[in-house]
Every structure is written in structure tokens, then in C-alpha cells.
């Protein structure tokens, strides 16, 4: 299988500020991110031959027309996609594959979500099918589900409650520090270990600062072939790999032997993307990783599932500064979901936007020293019935 490695380039990206954007509709946000991407690429909207829109929570019957109306496109094909929290990466993936296949020369991928006006407090719990004898019901909301993962992780790896909560607090402090350097983040204030550990409890051991917020936002990318990219600008980035892993189970139920300290879909999406990109040692070869830190414990599990740290060793690495700006692998250098919140359709493209800035030396006070490879990873649903999206991008050679 030839794969997509080095066959697709990103020549422009845009990203709104994320937050409680009461005065803007989702279409306003699409206009903002897409026109920033077009301006960044230096091209006109009329040069876009097709587009993909990732949006999860729009009204029933939503289609690509939502983006067409926002941008006033001239009847070009627009596909609306939805794939849980991997929706943004799914939109990017659709556009990238179409370009790699030679169907189009220049396309647009946009992810957007307007959650605050809806009163949404996060993804809703979806039903399951109890007829599967080897599955058990898991009718719990997301904070409780990931709290189970946290307590299990503490138990398996011998952490006391104090040690475990302190490890999680260090993640919140790290990501809030990064977010304080990012004017597009929803939350831009640093916090202390003590604040994180003593915050109001949401689902023990996860406190307020262990949970990402609910936000509005949009991000967009202009995708083309490298030969065209070279004519457009010098500092484009290239796609090294894309991967989506869909759990074979049924949403709302969970395997009765699940261990709570790994997520198969994330492991498998990582393997398929690393193989396509030719990455054999992620810790040494990846410079920046934006991972789906919907909760602090999720960053722990994902970092181990993707090979940035050995199983059970996340605590040692975060204490050593391994995942800080300037560490071996900068994890959630832009502040992550922890500081951006999670407007579902936008998050994957927002993650790619950070790698786009970093690989071109334009991340301002967050800028890493000569990064070459960036990863964006989203996870939605629950083990056995979830979706993990993975994108790997690289600086131009």
C-alpha cells in the first residue's frame, strides 16, 4: 500500500480564538478560520475546488451547505463529516486523501463547533446493546468514566492517592502554563500545584483543573500537492501519515475484561500512523504532540499508548520535565484541550495548527528549537466503541 507520506502539503491554516463566543455563530467562526487560512496561503477562495466540513453537534440534517452558505462558495462539492471527537482530523483526512488521489489540486478542510449557546456540558452518553454476553453496561458520564481510569492507574502502578493526584496536577499546571502563552486559548492563566490539587471535586480523583472546558471555536487548513505548494510558498508543511481506528465494540458498553489503563483504538491508530510515517521510536523522533487531554488522566494514557513514555512511567517523565516546552517531546504545547476546551469538530484541526506554527518557526513564546515532526491525536467515545484519529506532519525538507 503506497500510503500518503509526503504526497500532500498544507500551505495555509487559520484558527479562531476559542472560548465563550456568544456574539458569533458557528458560520461566523467558519468564515474567520477559513479566511485566515486563505490569507495565510495567499490564494483566493475561487481556487478551492472542494471542501470538507467537520462538525459534530449541528442540527439534524446538517450538510456541507452549512460551510457553503458561510463562505458563499460557488457550488463546489462540500462534504460534511462527523466521527465523534476525531471529527476535525476526519475532515482533514478526507481532503488530504482526495488530493493524494489526484482528484483535486487544492482543497479546504474546516472544523467548527458552537457549544456554549446550546447548554452542552460535553458529549452525551449514548446507549448500547446489552445482547453481547461478553460486554457490560457502562452508563456513566465522561468524568466518572475517566475517574475510573485514574483510580485504576494509581492502583496498578502503586501510586498513593496523594502521588497520583499530584501527577495529574502537574499535567494541569504544564498545560495551563502553555495556554498562558497562547492568545487563542480559552483559558490563559497559570495555576499552581496547590490550586489543582485543592480544586472542587468533579469525580474523584478528578478535580476542576483535571477536566477540559466547553468552548466554541473553528480551525481550517488549505491542502494541496507539494509541487503546487512550492509555487505558493516556501514554508509549507507535509503530511507524513494519517490514521483512524474505530472500535469494534458498541458505544455504551465496555468489555468485561477491560483494564482501564490503555485504549486499544489509540494504540492501533498510533501503530498505523507510525508505520506509514516510518517512525520507529516516537519519543526520539516526535518533537511536538498535541493529544486529547479531555482529562489529565487521558494525557497519561495517550502518552503511554503512543510510546512517548513506557507503561507506568509517565509520573517519572513529567517530574523530569520530559513533556514541557523544550523537553524531549513537548506534549500539548499550545495548552491542549485543557486550555482550549473542546469544540468537538474543531479540536483536531486546532491541534494541527500548533504543529503548523511550530514547524514553520511561528509559535512565538512557545516556539521549540528546530522541530521537525508533529503529531495530532483525538479520541472520542469509550474503549471498544471509540474512535482515535491520528495525523503526523513534518517540516519541509
Lateral strand order in the biggest sheet:
3-2-4-8-1-9-14-13-11-12
H/E topology pattern: EHEHEHEEHHHEEEHEEHHEHHEHHEE
Number of DSSP-assigned strands:
14
CATH topology: Peroxisomal Thiolase, Chain A, domain 1
Count, helices: 13
Oligomer: single chain
How many structural domains? 1
Shape category: globular
What is the CATH class name? Alpha Beta
Query: Major sheet, described briefly?
Result: 10 strands, mixed
Structure, described:
The protein is an alpha/beta fold and 397 residues long. The protein has a single domain (9-119, 212-395), classed as 3-Layer(aba) Sandwich (Peroxisomal Thiolase, Chain A, domain 1), CATH 3.40.47.10. 35% of the residues lie in helices and 19% in strands. The chain contains 13 helices and 14 strands. The chain has helices spanning 26-41, 65-71, 87-100, 142-156, 161-180, 193-197, 226-232, 264-277, 282-285, 296-305, 314-319, 336-340, 344-359; strands spanning 9-15, 50-54, 78-81, 106-113, 135-137, 201-203, 206-207, 217-224, 237-246, 253-255, 288-290, 330-331, 373-380, 387-395. It has a ten-stranded mixed beta sheet, with helices on both faces. A two-stranded antiparallel ribbon has the order 5-10. A two-stranded antiparallel sheet has the order 6-7. Strand 6 and strand 7 (206-207) form a beta hairpin. The protein is globular. 57% of the residues are buried. Mean pLDDT is 92; it is low at 124-137.
Amino acid at each position: 500500500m503506497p500510503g500518503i507520506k509526503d504526497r500532500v502539503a498544507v500551505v495555509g491554516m487559520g484558527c479562531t480564538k476559542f472560548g465563550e463566543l456568544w456574539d458569533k455563530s458557528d458560520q461566523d467562526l467558519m468564515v474567520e478560520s477559513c479566511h485566515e487560512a486563505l490569507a495565510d496561503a495567499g490564494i483566493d477562495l475561487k481556487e478551492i475546488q472542494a471542501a470538507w466540513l467537520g462538525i459534530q453537534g449541528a442540527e439534524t440534517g446538517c450538510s456541507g451547505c452549512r460551510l457553503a452558505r458561510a463562505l458563499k462558495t460557488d457550488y463546489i462539492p462540500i462534504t460534511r463529516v462527523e466521527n465523534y471527537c476525531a471529527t476535525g482530523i476526519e475532515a482533514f483526512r478526507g481532503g488530504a486523501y482526495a488530493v493524494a488521489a489526484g482528484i483535486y489540486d487544492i482543497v479546504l478542510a474546516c472544523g467548527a463547533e458552537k457549544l456554549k449557546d446550546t447548554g452542552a456540558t460535553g458529549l452525551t452518553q449514548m446507549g448500547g446493546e446489552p445482547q453481547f454476553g461478553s460486554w457490560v453496561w457502562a452508563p456513566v458520564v465522561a468524568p466518572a468514566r475517566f475517574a475510573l481510569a485514574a483510580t485504576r492507574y494509581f492502583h496498578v502502578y502503586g501510586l498513593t492517592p496523594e502521588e497520583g493526584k499530584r501527577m495529574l496536577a502537574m499535567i494541569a499546571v504544564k498545560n495551563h502554563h502553555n495556554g498562558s502563552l497562547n492568545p487563542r486559548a480559552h483559558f490563559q492563566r497559570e495555576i499552581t500545584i496547590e490550586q489543582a490539587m485543592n480544586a472542587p471535586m468533579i469525580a474523584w480523583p478528578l478535580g476542576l483543573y483535571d477536566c477540559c472546558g466547553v468552548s466554541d471555536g473553528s480551525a481550517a487548513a488549505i491542502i494541496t500537492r507539494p509541487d503546487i505548494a512550492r509555487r505558493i510558498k516556501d514554508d509549507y508543511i507535509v503530511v507524513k501519515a494519517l490514521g483512524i481506528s474505530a472500535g469494534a465494540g458498541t458505544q455504551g458498553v465496555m468489555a468485561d475484561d477491560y483494564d482501564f489503563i490503555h485504549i486499544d483504538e489509540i494504540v492501533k491508530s498510533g501503530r498505523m500512523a507510525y508505520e506509514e510515517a516510518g517512525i520507529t521510536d516516537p519519543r526520539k523522533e516526535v518533537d511536538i504532540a498535541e493529544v486529547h487531554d479531555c482529562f489529565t488522566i487521558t494525557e497519561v494514557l495517550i502518552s503511554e499508548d503512543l510510546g512517548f513514555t513506557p507503561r507506568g512511567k509517565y509520573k517519572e517523565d513529567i517530574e523530569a520535565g520530559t513533556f514541557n516546552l523544550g523537553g524531549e517531546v513537548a506534549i500539548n504545547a499550545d495548552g491542549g484541550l485543557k486550555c482550549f476546551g473542546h469544540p468537538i469538530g474543531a479540536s483536531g484541526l486546532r491541534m494541527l495548527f500548533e504543529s503548523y506554527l511550530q514547524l514553520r518557526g511561528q509559535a512565538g513564546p512557545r516556539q521549540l528549537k528546530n522541530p521537525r515532526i508533529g503529531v495530532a491525536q483525538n479520541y472520542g467515545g469509550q474503549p471498544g466503541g471509540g474512535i482515535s484519529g491520528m495525523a503526523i506532519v513534518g517540516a519541509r525538507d
